[in-house]
Design goal:
Layout lengths: L18 H16 L30 E10 L4 E4 L17 E8 L5 E5 L4 E4 L5 E5 L1 E4 L4 E7 L8 E3 L1
Parallel strand pairs: 1-3
Antiparallel strand pairs: 1-2, 3-8, 4-7, 4-9, 5-6, 5-8
């Protein structure tokens, strides 16, 4: 066998590499080497069910009332609303000072929305309605329902927004 020949393992001539196939092979090699992604890398992905507070419910009172809000919108136009009502047509949500209430969010869209109630903390509840953890912003994946408690301890007008 001569030096530089194809060798006994090559039975057919190699096709010339295209730019696309070369890039694809290179990306696969890099992914195998660096273990990109969440699978098989020894890490655990946490969910809201894994969150636990180091302290008990700071307020301790049961909510006096429940407010349910549906996250709605139009995917193609990228227009979002609560309960299908445009912001300019919506009535303000009224929280009485000192009131403890439960807010139930239902994401009826096919997009994740981070929801933030300005000026007040959100005390996330688990599926059984027990205090889980205190947060400023709640992540709402598509098709989910989450509830949290709020103590209206800040006077003024505050926005509830998808940040």
């Amino acid at each position: 066998m001569s030096q530089g020949g194809p060798g006994p393992w090559r039975t057919r001539p190699r096709k010339p590499a295209t730019r696309w196939s070369t890039c694809r092979r290179r990306r696969r090699r890099q992914a195998r080497r660096s273990r990109i992604g969440l699978r098989d890398n020894g890490r655990r992905v946490l969910s809201y069910a894994d969150l636990r507070s180091d302290f008990a419910d700071p307020d301790g009172r049961e909510p006096m009332r429940t407010l349910e809000l549906h996250l709605t919108g139009h995917m193609e136009r990228f227009v979002w609303s609560f309960d299908g009502i445009r912001f300019s047509d919506a009535e303000p949500l009224v929280f009485r000072y000192g009131e403890r209430l439960r807010v139930v969010l239902v994401n009826d869209t096919m997009m994740a929305h981070p929801i933030h109630l300005h000026g007040m903390w959100s005390d996330l509840e688990d599926a059984d309605g027990r205090f889980q953890v205190r947060k400023h912003t709640l992540d709402m994946p598509p098709g989910t329902r989450r509830s949290y408690r709020v103590t209206a301890d800040a006077l003024g007008r505050w926005a509830i927004t998808a940040t």
